[in-house]
């Protein structure tokens, strides 16, 4: 099938000012952000720690935008229900974080939210092809997971392109392609041309100049061209 979808910009709150999170969320909304990306890390699955279900709950109180929650944690099944109950709209799970990824995806979907799988730079697409018919999104990590501000890995555009080709040739696959890591005004063009639909941007949006709204507008224009 020919897959077409509206391109979406998802600010990553990992780069926001956690002491002024509501301010940064409202700023992103006013700038035209389509959804928010929340990284939950446990310090075991990746060498960093960030956030918890309470952050999801807090964000749900201040925004109606979809909350896209990326679980970089061991034993994700233990946290899926609390995170959904906190207000998540999409749960993204690494294949390497669980022995039963199909069950984890099914659990999230049974709770009424979208569910997706995450592929690291070194994760072959063959490892997740059996999940294509049941997932809503697939997140291609364009950096090694764990820390913001990393440099985009150029070879990941080929993975995005191949993923897009695979879904275009199957009537059963209906998922969006999300990219996360090193997304800026240069790399977003390459990802969009390769077939990506959702673009997670953190450092570029929150830590650069000109202002936040100008940068969101720049990214939106680039993916719409």
From TrEMBL:
Pathway: Carbohydrate degradation
Residue stretches in coiled coil: none
Record-linked InterPro entries: Aldolase_TIM (IPR013785), Ribul_P_3_epim (IPR026019), Ribul_P_3_epim-like (IPR000056), RibuloseP-bd_barrel (IPR011060)
One CC-aspect GO term: cytoplasm
Reaction(s) catalysed by this chain's protein: D-ribulose 5-phosphate = D-xylulose 5-phosphate
Cofactor note text: Binds 1 divalent metal cation per subunit.
Record GO terms (molecular function): D-ribulose-phosphate 3-epimerase activity; metal ion binding
Residues annotated as binding substrate: 12, 70, 146-149, 180-182, 202-203
Entries under PROSITE patterns matching the protein: RIBUL_P_3_EPIMER_1, RIBUL_P_3_EPIMER_2
Binding positions for a divalent metal cation per the UniProt entry: 37, 39, 70, 180
Pfam families membership: Ribul_P_3_epim (PF00834)
Keyword Cell division tagged: no
Catalytic site positions: 39 (proton acceptor), 180 (proton donor)
GO biological process: pentose catabolic process; pentose-phosphate shunt
Regions crossing the membrane: none
Alphabetically ordered keywords of this record: Carbohydrate metabolism, Cobalt, Isomerase, Manganese, Metal-binding, Zinc
EC number assigned by the record: 5.1.3.1
Reported cofactor(s): Zn(2+); Fe(2+); a divalent metal cation; Mn(2+)
Top-level taxon in the UniProt lineage: Bacteria
PANTHER family reported for this sequence: RIBULOSE-5-PHOSPHATE-3-EPIMERASE
Function: Catalyzes the reversible epimerization of D-ribulose 5-phosphate to D-xylulose 5-phosphate.
Name of the protein in question: Ribulose-phosphate 3-epimerase
Lineage: Bacteria, Bacillati, Bacillota, Bacilli, Lactobacillales
